[in-house]
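Troubleshooting log. The previous run stalled partway through. Resubmitting the same three chains, unchanged.
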Amino acid sequence: MTTLLEAKGISRAFGGLQALNSCSLSVERGSITGLIGPNGSGKTTLFNVMTGYIKPDAGRVEFDGKDITGARPNTVFALGVGRTFQMTRIFSRISVVENMLVATQRDESWLRGLTRSKSSKGELAAAMEWLDFVGLSRLADLPAGSLSYGQRKLLELAYVLVADPDVILLDEPAGGVNLTLINEISDKIRTLNQAGKTFLIVEHNMEFVMNLCGSVTVMHQGGNLVSGNPEDVRSNPLVLDAYLGGGDDEEELEEMSNG
Amino acid sequence: MNSSALIHAVVDGVLTGSVYALMATGLTLIFGVMDIINLAQGILVILGAYLSYTLSVHFGVDLFVGLVFTIPILFVVGIVIERLFVARLKGPERTAMSILVTYAVSLVIEGILNEVYSVNQVQLQAWYVDRSFPIFGVYLPYIYLLGFILAASMLGALYFMLYRTRFGASIRASLSDQTSAALVGIDTKRVATICFGIGVAVTAAGGMIYGATNAFNASSSYDLISRLLTIIVLGGMGSLGGALVAGIMMVLLQDIVAVVWSPVWSSMTFFVVLVIVLSLRPQGLFGKLSARVA
Amino acid sequence: MNVKQLPWWATALVVFAAFPLVVTNPFWTTIAIFALIYMSCATSWNMFSGYSGYVSLGSAIFYGCGAYTMALGSIHWHIPGGAEQFWLVPLSGLVAMVIAVPLGAVALRVRRHTFVVITIAFFFVFQLAAINANFTGGPAGLSLALIPWQGNSFNTPFYYVGLAILVFAVILSALVRRSRFGLQLLAIRDDEDRALGLGVKVKAVKLTGYTLSAFTVGMCGALYAMFIGQIYPQFVFDPVFDVTVALMAFLGGFGTLLGPLLGGLILESSQQYLTVTYSNGSLYLILFGALFLVVVLFMPQGIVVKVKEMWAKHQLNKTPQLEGSTLAGSQKV
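Second attempt completed without errors. Output:
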């Protein structure tokens, strides 16, 4: 297996608080990699650095051997790195299918967008196909804002998929949804993985992670603590310590430093 | 250019700047707590000036004594505007709508002021407006010094209220995060209403000093609001300290440009500086850039 | 605008085209010309601000620049008063666009709340410059060559040029709404950062929208200057213009195609009528402000959406099975 997405020695401070401290992570091509750790260990911040939303103070992010450190989110996405957010983010005042169409271009020039219609036949078909995959195709013409929380999660997954990224970063895909939906999402991820998609997943639901992931990295206080297969990680005494020790809440850190 | 003109400009800049800082602080407080841009701030300053005018001309009340009446009046005006119009705004375009609504309020007040006071310019009169005092070898009317003292003490009182009282703490909590403030049990609605009242009340003092140092009519409000907005954007929207520094800095700069270069173009200094600063620091001088993910 | 609605749009166009043939009284045709100008401006304002959520209160910059381009061009190139001047109308639009690029590049660096304020600040820069510069004629403004057209037909050419601008603005706005670009603007309105993360080049898209919308407004300013024959800096760079255009879009329906047209038609006609009939300026301000408040507070989503909702409710009462489809339809105009 080859490494598809890699973070090397990433550091990032918010004000005086070190959210990431020389953190490294690598995602093998074709794997489902889990990223776990107590609240405040820097998981979401690492996601934000890897997808271009936050610039690191030090370190390097590589995708498919290319340096993408500090690239803007649209560039990172265009290269083939898709992501979802912990707080699900959809475009609420346009229709569900239009949400899908926003994501269908990967690196289209803005001038081209001016002269072409909203969607080509192929794009519309692809959009509907992925909506069908997550079971939302019958709601395609509704304003996305009228979807339920779970449906929004599925829509967000679908519109990331429609751009056909090579690796997909999921931030708490099982957070706040019911058990049936968790299993459904889990199945979808497995199906997609068999079709060749690589996943990196942040999740608090241990069962979800342990069932799905081939390798797991544990973060603690902004650094990577342990990496390995789920069983090894589970039995590692360091991991237990990290979870019992607790830490500062990372969202709080970001908010404090950004006002 | 002679040095006494420059000294004059610097002194005037600091003294007048503090008055602008006061008015801008009211505006930035309203924005910071409520995400509301109060475009009526300019006309409310003029309303404050006209109220002082009426009190002094028709009732012989001294301008400073008159503040005892005009500050509470404008506080109430602010509360009424907030309750009647601003509080009703909801939804994702709330801030944009607030601009339109407060502009409409401003038009109505402008129309009323034109009807009541006519469009002829007036200026407030008192002994301290006519008589001057020497400072660093130049002469300035006393009103500049008194205005500065008033503005400084009102700013002091405002800061004391914000940083030393319990109510101030809840305002500051709302300033940094409304949702969290609501979660810890702060009545954010009440805080918002009172903040709007306070933000508007400071225009009574600002208006009185403005009216005593400038000839004005209702349309002077356009010039005022554009300056105040520039100040709060420069300082960083919602930043109290930013409004203070930017207010003094901008008036100072404008006065110096008027002396060194040309008074015609000095009023443009405001906007040119704004453009330059924003090109370098989009968040303003003291504002914090919100994270892309927040 | 979809194919089903085309007959309605065509009918409306015929009615507008026939108007000056039926009504020849210059009192009314003058009002109509202003209505056309404002409807065009509101439509193109909405094409950027309504779609993207970036409310601009500086559209008078482009109106003024268009007006000055017309005036300066006519004077400089010694164009005699008359139909030849109309060639300056598209040129004025282009000038406005060229000016919009650097303005947008700076103003769009910030997020929407600050953007509003910056557009206001820019507006005052231009107004001050027009009042103080020499080439603009200062506060006295500029006079254009007299147009030798006589009588009731004086207004007719202006009316049709205004109508042409309006048709252009509406078609452009409809095309943008159907394009990928328009979808990107709408995505930016809903969640700019998310759009960025899905590959939308938000900076380029916003700047393009801002610049495009300047074109129509610039043309309108030029038409105004030619029609009035005399421009003053405080009238072509008028803060009330900025807000009026925004109000028209809000009154009709923010982000819809039909909204700004309706808003512009209703508001500008009544405004012109009121100013001509009651020349008392301050009474007009009070009425205008009050109307404004009523609209924003009681119909924040605008006439178009409100009527659609009422229509949907009405339909729902008649045929209770119809829920989903009418709801979905209300978003798309």
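Takeaways: Chain A has eleven helices and ten strands. Confidence is low (pLDDT under 50) at residues 246-259 of chain A.
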